[in-house]
């Protein structure tokens, strides 16, 4: 717990507090002199001696609240603590007030004596007002802390969610590619080397961009072309990538590594099961501040018993939902023997002029 | 060993096939008699050429390496070669000789071949690879059943299966597209089909829950189920209890 007085930690609060009491006492002095006809000097000494003095001593009430909270002590103990604190403060306040006044007016005994009881009652009432004020201050601070914690927590949760949803290069892709390289080293070392370089570049992209949420579509596309070129070595003529990309799309932003699982799916369900060449078609358009990317492939209906949305597609949907707070950015069409996934990525209009 | 091992490679990727071929070239006693690009071809070639040894990939177009094994009439020694390590246990349950993880080295392949030679010297050329099938619980339920109908291989998605009837050593699988015979036990299907979708209603029947139109009392203590196409199947006492559990009545 933080035991520093809010007046020290928050200068604005202490300045406001000071101004409030100065204004309040000035108003009281004005009323006393103008309405009740009390001499200005006496009104000023009396008011300042009591009101400002209370404002100074009263600041200490915050500690009483802080050290006897409901969480740690019972209601009775708190009431007792406040009663003792109130009595001490009221006594100090009245005593020091009288001392101050006596310094200026040594002969003021009679009117001071008459008002002792009223003053004490006012002192206790002020104590209650201060307690309420400080409770409000503490409550406000606690509330602000909570909001701060909550936003921080929310950011952490979002980050963790995104981390979990991020796709990684499938290890089997890696092992199969390494096996292809192993084979090429004997028959075609130049191609083996090319494949090692492509694979390294792809791995670097997938590792580096773990830290960045979004990349340019151009970059994402280039890396998926790398991915497809590596798979092409494995699948040969069976894999036929086709691209239809509008120029305007290239500078658009897209979450990194979000297309790769779509190509992976197209290969797994389309190319892998096929014995003939399969087109994996990428369409991209820029429509009203949205990047619309669709990836489609044909597949053999007789082999696949398609069971809805796999974990890869669900992760993409969830990831788009977390980033753009919209659950409708991924669309799946499964007609006859063609499977198409369309992503609609909202763009910041400023970035694309 | 004086005799050569007549060997077939079943592998869908050309480069992987090529690598294995060039490794095998250097091993004495291996005679490569065929290379197959997919499971269909694999089944046909193995049944036709009756090899001693088969190198088998698991993930392949059309049917997997495991599904292929179920369709074999000839029983060769099997060495799996795959990038997936999660099937190793299953492979040994199928009594495979070895399990090569891609990418593998020349030495590792030689070691696997040595194991085959050792096993053949001990047990003879025929392996018991097929007898072992289906005796082990699966990690996941079947999503299709591969059957062989004379020379054609048919893949029946589980959605199309209506019910299964036992016939001595075989089962008859009734689907929307026809019925197929397969050499499997009822026990195998009882454990490999999702129990929420299929119920064992009798010693001789496993029925898809969605196919059931009605359950009727037949005699005092016996029941029959009537399917949507009016087929009537007997329900045993235990079967009735199973139905009650799944359908919650």
Overview of the molecule:
The complex is a heterodimer of chains A (353) and B (249). Chain A is built from twelve helices and seven strands. Chain A is rod-shaped. Chain A has two domains: 6-155, no CATH class; 166-351, Heat Shock Protein 90, CATH 3.30.565. In chain A, strand 6 (330-335) and strand 7 form a beta hairpin. Chain A has 353 residues and is α+β, with helices and mostly antiparallel strands. By secondary structure, chain B is an alpha/beta fold. Chain B folds into two domains: 5-123, 3-Layer(aba) Sandwich (Rossmann fold), CATH 3.40.50; 144-247, LytTr DNA-binding domain (OB fold (Dihydrolipoamide Acetyltransferase, E2P), Beta Barrel), CATH 2.40.50. Helices cover 29% and strands 33% of the residues of chain B. In chain B, strands 2-1-3-4-5 form a five-stranded parallel β-sheet, sandwiched between helices. In chain B, strands 10-9-8-12-11 form a five-stranded antiparallel β-sheet. A three-stranded antiparallel β-sheet of chain B has the order 13-14-15. The model of chain B has no long low-confidence stretch (mean pLDDT 87).
